[in-house]
Design a protein that fits this description.
Elements (H helix, E strand, L loop, with lengths): L3 E2 L8 E11 L5 E11 L10 E4 L4 E7 L2 E2 L5 E3 L3 E4 L5 E10 L9 E5 L2 E5 L19 E10 L5 E4 L2 E7 L4 E12 L6 E4 L2 E8 L5 E8 L8 H18 L7 E7 L6 E2 L4 E5 L12 H16 L8 E2 L5 H19 L2 H21 L10 E2 L8 H34 L3 E2 L1 H12 L8 H4 L5 E9 L4 E9 L14 E8 L11 E5 L3 E6 L7 E4 L8 E3 L4 H10 L3 H24 L8 H11 L6 H7 L5 H6 L6 H18 L1 H11 L8 H19 L3 H13 L3 H12 L4 H14 L3 H12 L6 H8 L10 H14 L1 H4 L5 H14 L3 H8 L10 H16 L5 H12 L1
Parallel strand pairs: 2-12, 18-19, 19-21, 22-24, 25-31
Antiparallel strand pairs: 1-23, 2-3, 3-9, 4-8, 5-6, 5-9, 7-8, 10-11, 11-16, 12-15, 13-16, 14-15, 17-18, 20-21, 25-26, 26-29, 27-28, 27-30
Helix pairs in contact: 1-2, 2-3, 3-4, 3-5, 4-5, 4-9, 5-6, 8-9, 8-10, 9-13, 11-15, 13-15, 14-15, 15-17, 16-17, 18-19, 19-21, 23-24, 23-25, 24-26, 25-26
Bound molecules: ligand BES and zinc ion.
The site of ligand BES has 17 residues, from strand 20, helix 2 and helix 3.
């Protein structure tokens, strides 16, 4: 397996001015003709070498250079590349290849999904369509002519503007598209099918009218309004926040059922996983609505941060993804609630990215090498990358960040650049030195910041000492201190911040002591407010102080955080008692703190629901040096039941009070549903007939999917006939709606019922299960392996064997999705020796199979070695 290194980057010897594509579409055999104008890159001196084009699974039918067919001695072609010798400095190259879209199960390049043709080219899928310089620093102007049977494919779409169309013989027709903006091949897109369009418009700040089109299968025409509204909101927000306007006269989004990722930002023609487009209250939950809003915005924001200014090479991926995730997080914070959004984003970072940083696949946000690029669309590049972008805003302020972003985009418009160019743009626009920030781009691992404080009563001052440390990797230079902004405040006994103590401390050395004056009482420090840097904070804090911050901190993130720390402290203590075989006892102070949150009139329902949730089993496991998943599960279930019982009346009255409402998806109703369903969860955990009946009643009568899904997920956790009845009813009602049926698979896979594993095995043989559909495969397998630690880590290892078998099967169909699922084994070293050995054995078994993809091999070999 070939490893590609960042340090080996060389500019392309050839550049492409224009590429004119012609597609003769047919599911079994599509002909692709490409005519390109190429020239030698003047920046690469003394180039005399051959032209080497990328290919993947292509069959060459014709080849002409400047109009003349080439003699066999002038070129070498195989399915992986095309090499042409003795080419002039400037020339035209024409190729014709054959590809097979209906057989393309990897869903990279041109493929069919429920009869619709679509493409996915990022990162290296364009080479599966035609021979090309398939790298992001080669940007060309594209035209696309699509020819297809009119009856089956009335709609023919590609990037840019529709410039001509016409009829052909035999019931075929054609459409010609032209994209005026030069772009890298990864942003190319084509769609052809029988689709309908949900239309809207947007008038830009400077008064241009843009046509907005959401294309879906006819049966889904009634589920597009939210995606359209989200797009309009994102377009307005980017104008208001950053002064960035859209640049074409048309913006299209197409929803397809088979898609490896969430969505793709192709110029003027986004292709989306239908999960992130289709919604109406009866089929989509509140979280689905928020997911759609965020993903639609994310892909739209790429038009500037990704498309107009793109990446020089794939090592720079965080340049566009970290930045665009940061932008969509800020957008969602403005659309929903800043505090709730921050809590969600941080929870995601901790769950996925902290685990990655602590495991065998730890890598910096700008990786140094890879074998398969698809494996580097990671939580580190995305989520930690977004946190690193946020550091600029924390250091420069919103206005400084805006100035920096605009300067970076103006300076590099139309270019393919690096993370260093971004940092330089930010520094130049603000006239500051940001050199030390580069360390965040090449040092992996989650930094730990230790804090301690001392109050000097006689001097009336408080000294806060912060020190940082980082994970040391073998064969890598000793990590150097990072610049870490720490937002703090000192809270007085009355619960308010002591005047003059709300500051952003900049820790840039190994250790530093910051002094606060005029502190006349012993304060409780609130540190890293708003999660001001992607670090782990370590400090000695009493449960009293945590309960105090949970009730009083003026920073909503740290209020929530104090509650999570408090609960974690209680839970870890109980895990220890389980392991020692001691009786479990609940800390009444946690019950008291929960009661206080429930009755706090200043908090909205979403924040309450989050504050009243316990940290997940995954997050608790991260705190343990050796994980016994049974002990973690038992301790957590114990606390859930204790909180359920001790606060039974409070949950009951909360549920009753918030039970009635509408199925509207607006803030008031979302807050209401979140709090109500949190209460119901505690009640159902008591497994009393009366409380179970409440969930059954909600399941039977819910108008919207949020309440329906919530009740269903509670019922499938039960070890009783209510579970089986709900499973059967759900299926009968929703078997015709693929996205809802995905929920049916997912909820069963994530259930804490003792029947969960047997159900998952049975579901893998269900007629509606389909390994080739990524959403369906993930709904069962990823949900189980990554979202149900208790069942996945059953002590006999049978679940490991089952998932490993499915990974091997899936790898032959779709390696990209298989490699995501196999990553669930990465943490094997962190488990108790019995499970660790069983997990490792499955990794070795997978690695030993013949014909395993490099996608999966890169992951499993790393996991076994490191
Ligand atoms: N450019 C990516 C999609 C992509 C990723 C294509 C990897 C091919 C390989 C897109 O902008 C993206 O990041 N999508 C995310 C969702 C987003 C909201 C973070 C995704 O698909 O998960
Ligand atoms: Zn993206």
């Amino acid at each position: 397996m070939e490893r590609i290194h960042r340090k080996d980057y060389r500019a392309s010897e050839f550049l492409v001015d224009t590429i004119d594509l012609v597609f003769e579409l047919d599911p079994t055999e599509t002909i692709v003709r490409a005519k390109m104008q190429l020239h030698r890159n003047p920046e690469v001196p003394a180039g005399t070498g051959p032209l080497l084009l990328h290919g993947d699974g292509l069959e060459l039918r014709a080849l002409r250079l400047d109009g003349a067919a080439l003699d066999g001695s002038r070129f070498e072609a195989d399915s992986q590349s095309l090499r042409i010798h003795d080419v002039p400095d400037r020339f035209e190259l024409a190729t014709e290849v054959v590809i097979h879209p209906a057989e393309n199960t990897k869903l990279m390049g041109l493929y069919t999904s429920s009869g619709t043709f679509c493409t996915q080219c990022e990162a290296e899928g364009f080479r599966r369509i035609t021979y090309y310089l398939d790298r992001p620093d080669v940007m060309a102007r594209f035209t696309t002519r699509i020819e297809a049977e009119r009856a089956r494919y009335p709609v023919l779409l590609s990037n840019g503007n529709r410039v001509a169309e016409g009829e052909l013989s035999d019931g075929r027709h054609w459409v010609q598209w032209e994209d005026p903006f030069p772009k890298p091949s990864y942003l190319f897109a084509l769609v052809a099918g029988n689709l309908v369009c949900h239309e809207g418009t947007f008038t830009t700040a400077s008064g241009r009218e843009v046509a907005l089109e959401i294309w879906v299968e006819p049966a889904n025409a009634d589920k597009c309004a939210h995606a359209l509204a989200s797009l309009q909101a994102a377009m307005r927000w980017d104008e208001e926040r950053y002064g960035l306007e859209y640049d074409l006269d048309i913006y299209m989004i197409v929803a397809v059922d088979d898609f490896n990722m969430g969505a793709m930002e192709n110029k003027g023609l986004n292709v989306f996983n239908s999960k992130f487009v289709l919604a109406k209250p009866s089929t989509a939950t509140d979280d689905d609505y928020e997911g759609i809003e965020g993903v639609v915005a994310h892909e739209y924001f790429h038009n500037w941060t990704g498309n107009r200014v793109t990446c020089r090479d794939w090592f720079q991926l965080t340049l566009k993804e970290g930045l665009t995730v940061f932008r969509d997080q800020e957008f969602s914070a403005d659309m929903t609630s800043a505090a709730v959004q921050r809590i969600k984003d941080v929870t995601r970072l901790r769950t996925a990215q902290f685990a990655e940083d602590a495991g065998p696949l730890a890598h910096p946000i700008r990786p140094e090498s890879y074998i398969e690029m698809n494996n580097f669309y990671t939580a580190t590049v995305y989520e930690k990358g977004a946190e690193v972008v946020r550091l600029y805003q924390t250091l420069l302020g919103r206005e400084g960040f805006r100035k920096g972003l605009r300067h970076y985009l103006e300076r590099h418009d139309g270019c393919a650049v690096t993370c260093d160019d971004f940092r330089q743009g930010m520094a130049d626009a603000n006239d500051v030195d940001l050199d030390q920030l580069e360390r965040w781009y090449f040092q992996a691992g989650t930094p730990v910041v230790r804090t301690s404080g001392a109050w000097d009563a006689s001097a009336g001052s408080y000294a806060m000492t912060l020190s940082q440390s980082q994970r040391v990797f073998p064969d890598e230079p000793r990590p150097r201190p990072l610049p870490i902004p720490i937002r703090v405040g000192l809270v007085g006994a009355d619960g308010n911040d002591i005047a003059g103590t709300v500051r952003t401390l900049e820790l840039s050395e190994d250790e530093h002591t910051f002094t606060f004056e005029n502190v006349r009482e012993r304060p409780v420090p609130s540190i890293a407010r708003g999660f001001s840097a992607p670090i782990k904070l370590e400090m000695e804090r009493s449960r009293e102080d945590l309960a105090f911050l949970m009730a009083n901190d003026s920073d909503p993130f740290n209020r929530w955080e104090a509650g999570q720390r408090f609960a974690t402290d209680v839970l870890l203590g109980l895990v220890g008692r389980v392991l020692e075989g001691q009786a479990l006892e609940m800390d009444p102070a946690l019950v008291q703190a929960f009661r206080r949150i429930l009755s706090d009139g200043s908090l909205d329902g979403s924040i309450k629901a989050l504050t009243l949730s316990l940290p997940s089993e995954e997050l608790l496991s991260q705190e343990l040096s050796q994980v016994d998943p049974d002990a973690v599960h038992r301790a957590r279930e114990f606390v859930v039941r204790e909180l359920g019982a001790a606060l039974r009346d409070d949950w009951m009255s909360t549920y009753a009070q918030h039970r009635q409402g509408t199925d509207a998806v607006d803030k008031a109703q979302i807050d209401r549903r979140r709090l109500k369903n949190r209460a119901l969860r505690y009640l159902v955990a008591l497994e009393e007939q009366g409380t179970i009946a409440l969930a059954v009643e909600q399941f039977r009568t819910a108008a919207g999917m949020t309440d329906y899904e919530a009740a269903f997920s509670m019922l499938v956790d039960l070890d009783s006939s209510e579970a089986d009845r709900a499973i059967a009813e759900f299926y009968d009602r929703w078997r015709g709606e693929p996205l809802v049926l995905d929920k049916w698979f997912r909820m069963q896979a994530m259930s804490s019922s003792p029947a969960a594993f047997d159900r998952v095995v049975a579901l893998s043989n269900h007629p509606d299960f389909n390994l080739a559909n990524p959403n369906r495969a993930r709904s069962l397998l990823f949900a189980f392996a990554a979202g149900n630690p208790f069942a996945f880590h059953r002590a006999d290892g049978e679940a490991y064997r089952f998932v490993a078998d499915r990974v091997v099967e899936l790898d032959a169909i779709n390696p990209q999705v298989a490699s995501r699922i196999v990553s669930s084994f990465n943490q094997w070293r962190r488990f108790e020796p019995g499970r660790a050995a069983l997990m490792k054995a499955q990794l070795e078994r997978i690695a030993g199979q013949s014909g395993i993809s490099k996608d999966v091999l890169e992951i499993v070999e790393r996991a076994v070695e490191r």
